[in-house]
Amino acid sequence: MIITPNDAILGATVTEIDLHQPVSDGDFGRILRALGEHGVLRFPDQRIEAGVLRDFSARFGELQVIKGIPYFEPGMPEVSILSNIVENGKQVGVPDAGQDWHTDMTYNRVVGFVNALVAHRVPVRDGEVLGATEFANTVAAYDDLPDDMKRRLADATATHDLN
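The structure corresponding to this sequence follows.
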């Protein structure tokens, strides 16, 4: 397994590992450490099915189920389907997930530790990929704040309510 940090302040690419095979405890420890160091990990060139995604994700902790949405992998409510594709007049997934900036599942009592995403169909127009998930390094953003702003925020709290 090779872990290559990105040139940016966030992210690394993990290669030379097949997530379809059981990941050893040692390799999982390296992955977990790399996640802590780099914030986002990318595993390119892996065609991961729902069961593999679920099982790998469960290594990071208890999986969350989004209650009240009918868009999940059959028999696997832990694996939500996000899509704006309509087939036979029906949406195949949550159509508006991620349309705007957001932080996933922060309204839960226990906020998720890791989000695991897999893209199977990404639209292309005029040779340009239209789907793009972007990540922000909020630790770096905070570190770059002026000291007076950090003092103003020192005792601040926030509540995220799904309603």
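The first helix runs from residue 25 to 38.
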